[in-house]
Amino acid sequence: MKEEYFQTLKSIETEDWLDLHVIRPICFLLARFFARFDIHPNTVTIWSMVFGVASSYFFAQGCYYYDGMQGLIMNIVAIVLLMIADIFDCTDGQLARMTGKKSHVGRILDGVAGFVWFIPIYHALVWRFYQHHEIEFSWLGISDTPENALISTVVVYALGIVSGILGMGGQQRLADYYIQVHLFFLKGEKGSELDNSTHQQEIYDQLPANTPVYERVFQKSYVNYTRKQEKVTPQFQRLMARLREKYGSTDDIPVEVRSEFHKNSLKLMKWNGLLTFNFREGFLFLFCLFDIPVENFLFEIFFMGLLYLYVNRRHEAFSRKIADSLK
Known about the structure:
0% strand
């Protein structure tokens, strides 16, 4: 069973401690259960979206400070629903590797699942601030008038947009990319899901005329997703271009080049893991339980933003160094 479990992981190197020892074992048992009933991984992904979106209703409620025990229960329900969504989102990949039911649509669905959760959750947090802002107003010395509440909510909504699009969205998109890059240099092209926007655009352009609208929308969104990943990694794109130019097929990249990249990438995996869901999820839960959810936006913009810059610049630096050595 232990060997079967490890076979459902992308790689031990790309899993953080909580995932490897707590989340992934639970997901493995769920994957075995779903496999027994021939449930498709994409179905599990959709379920994760449903649970994630459902949690937004409960996150919109004040916690103990504002609504007493009822508020605390509502927030605990929100946390449980989002944890289930996260577990299901992890289960779909292990189920796909266990059963061999991998699909291009599944890869796209898995990439957008988190965004589907957080759009309604972030809106719920803004609404919650509009209803319950006594703590923040007392800290800032702001009078609790309808006008001040409305103006402050507009500011918080702007923070939510920055936090969601440039913060959580960009950070998790980069983290996912670096995981696939790491797997590419560790296992080769067949052992990773490293995609590029040019190839994804070709897939979109070649879709038959009778392709369902939802599949076209998913594919087009994935083209944009990969373009954004490439835009913030110019030195890595330069490295890949040089490798293709010098060695032709990426399968012919020398072992010493792969090893050098892998060694540098491995050092960043523990920091890259903090950009994924588990770390930020814990802070979201704490902020909500303490009735200061708006601080989650500030946490993602500033603290997580600094972590994002650190990981990105370190990765770009050694990508540049390896590319220069190929002259």
